[in-house]
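Input/output pair, single chain:
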Amino acid sequence: MKLSLDWIKEYVGELPDDPKTVGIKMTLATAEIEGHEKHGEDVVYDIDNKSLTHRPDLWGHFGFAREVAAVYKTNLLAPSLGEWAYASDAQEALKVEVNVDPELCPRYSGLVIDNVTVGPSPDWLVAKLEKIGSRTINNIVDLTNYVMYELGQPMHAFDRRRLTGDLVQVRMAQKGERLQTLDGNEHELNENMLVIADAEKPVAIAGVMGGANSEVIASTTSLVLESANFHPTHVRRTAAALNIRTDSSMRFEKGLDPQQTDRAIRRYVTLLLDLCPEAKVVSSLLDVDRADRNPVVIATSFNFFRQRLGIDLSDEVIADILTRLQFQVDSQGEALYVTVPSFRATGDVSIPEDLVEEVGRVYGFDNIPPVAPMIPVQPVKASPLHQLQRQLRQVLSRDLAFYEVFNYGFVGDKLIENAGLDKADHLALANPLASDQNLLRTSLVPNMLKITAENLRFRKAFRFYELERVFSNKLQSEAFEYDSFELCGLLCRQNWKNNPPECFYTVKGAVEDLLEQLPLASERSFRPAQGELPAWCHPGRTADILIGETKVGYVTQLHPQTAHNFGIKAGVGLFVLNVSALLTLPKAEARFVKVQKYPTVPFDISLICSERTLIADVQNLIRQTSDKVRKVELFDVYTGDKIGEGNKSLAYTVTFAAHDHTLQPEEIEELQNGVINALEGAGHQVRKG
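Output:
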């Protein structure tokens, strides 16, 4: 939108600063000035009225003049409305009906004018319109544009002779109705579009553009002048549906003041009588006014302004700025009641904070010294989930040399098919990002296997992990809730392509190192997997991860069929931990332990047991024999013909020590015998080393 400085000066008088400074002040107070250019003695500003504000009152020169007058503290001169009067004693030859919801058309004002003469516009009118980029047509149409650019209220003039019947109605279009608009294009209308119609046909698209079937032509002598108010969203949707963008629709889309309609008509007639003295108003104001006239009153206080702005402005300064902006200020003791003018009460100013912004921008935000707020600073309470996530990431990335990866939370049909999952167990997205990301993931593993296949093109060995949400397919309260946070770690080596057992044991060792550094009170252990396994788990090399008696995940070697589905020609070991389950487990208390001052005594022992005996069970059995058992370390596992089929030999180093004395020979012998007796009592064959 373009703005003429000379036009503004008609309402505020001379301004003391140069055009550039005026533009800067308007930028700070009202809207963004993108630039200005000279037009003879005038200066025309190029305004982006959407960048800083969508205020509907700033879509006309007089609206900007109000702002300039407030900033420069000058008197504001309103446009002349003349001394003419409506023909109150006339027999109405035209009626207006509004047959839609009041929200769609809060107010429709009209007027009938006879004895008009259509001709070229005078030079002053042509010059004003052309400077701001408006094409001139004739004096009647140009005046409607002039009033729109002056007051911000769109208007339209119909040729009275070309309207059928004695009724102008505002209604919804009927299916199949068509209208050729003033730009020469024909449009098919639908039932969701608001139109202005005569007794037979639509003659304008409300708020957007008039129809060619009622436009003012050279022979026009009688006018029906329209000045209305339409719902902003409805006008926007209609303009978008018809692909029409006009000066009129842009203004209506911002939400205009319904009280402007009759003022615009009075301004138009005043100017028309100067151009066509023989013109005659032959009707009263044809006005259907259903707008809410209750003023917006905001209760606040002067102290509220000072607190929010952070500067000690006096009551008089605050009241003066609001008054200059045409707010009515009523001070009653500590209370302050501010009445919002109708042109700012269109959804723009409605709460005390809006008033603070008004005072601040006119006073000048640059004039307010920046001061750090004096508020008590308290540390944010640490989230247990975030603490655990940080611990897991530190151990995996720093100590175990895993790389963290980030995948989308979505999977596709092909991906879950390769992973052996069921599509019915996944929630489908209404608007997926892509056809292969149409479902919410229930596990991190499918995406991890996908990027494993991609990385094998460039690297022979790698290890990475992902720690993120997985989603349940259960609906709760008509909306899904994520099931839990999950951690998936994966190791891959091309030299494991024949699926050796090292693949499983290496990833199991990584899990042991990870769990050892978590502050968990219960013992960590592994058990052969029980129950139904995910399709990617190797049936003979999968173990459940337990903390105490709680299962928190599993460690496995990738199933050969799943590896084939993803095109993975390498050995893969992976683990999955339920991070949300880890949060519910009791935490170990940090305790100070004295440095071991007295010597430790190692004791090597080996035993033969069933091949299905769990190493963790043997270790726990040894630890339970005495509180002087400091450490139990497995250093050898042997299977072979020498110990019998179905058996294995385990060799441990058991370390004894006391905190308060040196162990005596008889104590050591007693501790060793306790371990031996416990193992033999459990049915194991013991050999001392």
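Residues 665-681 form the longest helix (17 residues). The chain has five domains: 2-72, 95-289, 296-365, 384-583, 601-688.
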